Amino acid sequence: MSEPVPLRLAARIDGPRDAPVLVLGNSLGTSSALWQRQLPALAGRFRLLRYELPGHGLAGGEFSPAPAGPYTVAGLGAGVLAALDRLGVARALYCGVSLGGMIGMWVAATAPDRIAGLALCCTSAHLPPTQMWRERAVTVRANGTSVIVGQAVGRWFTPAFADREPDVTAEFTAGLAATRPAGYAGCCEAIAAMDLRPQLAAITAPTLVIAGADDPATPPWHGAVIAGSIPGARLKVIRGAAHLANVSQPGEVSAALVQHVDGLT
């Protein structure tokens, strides 16, 4: 099998130079701002490497290039490995939400020497139906990402959280609307083609799987499949959380993440 062509991903690394590196991977339609609520628990303890998916980025900041798709999870994972090489990181901890978690599983299975510990949040090893993802890619290429904002909010946050935190909802919907259509669509096609289940048993990194109890996109049973397939993996279900569990329940997710990865390097 030929090596996947890595996608170029914008990335930044900051924090104490002698601290272990923790890579943070984002969900589809979000930027590295997804992790803002974890920074009080992580900054200073870890050297944080944050990357942007193709066509994703911070408003007024750097966006990752968005070449014409389709992409693959392997190509995205190869892009993460290339970013590690570019930034001089030989081995790291990795935490990813949704698509970020899918990428993390591929990296941990393919390059086990590079990943010291793995945390997978609200993600799946296989997420059909394929046709739905391909249709979404077509819609976004034709009409932009703003047309799917309403659907995304319903997956990302529980109705109670969206009502209680309208500013947070607005922050994430604005980020999705700013995402380049080609990048979003290419990532949809990567998810459509993905089936990581045969690779899970090859993951040797200590693994924590986090699921949102009210996640309609990747319900807890998706996490249970992953945890049951990776040797020694543990599953933690977060109550009162939909797909972006680390945003709606930041304290509980941060505590679980730090407890898991602290001391693994």
Number of discrete domains:
1
Beta-strand percentage? 5-15%
Q: What is the third-level CATH name, the topology?
A: Rossmann fold
Structural class: alpha/beta
Question: Average pLDDT value?
Answer: 95
Low-confidence regions: none
The helix content, as a percent range, equals 40-55%
How many individual β-strands? 7
Walk across the major sheet and give the strand order.
1-3-2-4-5-6-7
The H-level CATH homologous superfamily, spelled out, is Alpha/Beta hydrolase fold, catalytic domain
CATH architecture descriptor text: 3-Layer(aba) Sandwich
Give the radius of gyration: 17 Å
For the record, what CATH class applies?
Alpha Beta
Could you state the order of secondary-structure elements as H and E? Answer: EEHEHEHEHHHHHEHEHH
- The dominant shape is globular
Major pleated sheet:
7 strands, mixed
How many helices? The count is 11
Cα-to-Cα separation, first versus last residue: 31 Å
Task: Describe the fold and architecture.
By secondary structure, this protein is of the alpha/beta class. The chain has one domain: Rossmann fold (3-Layer(aba) Sandwich). It contains eleven helices and seven strands. It has helices at residues 39-42, 73-86, 99-110, 130-143, 149-156, 159-164, 166-178, 181-193, 220-229, 245-248, 250-261, and strands at 11-14, 21-25, 47-51, 92-97, 115-121, 207-212, 234-238. It has a seven-stranded mixed β-sheet with strand order 1-3-2-4-5-6-7, sandwiched between helices. α9 (220-229) links the parallel β6 and β7. α4 packs antiparallel against α8 (181-193) and α5 packs across α7. The protein is globular.
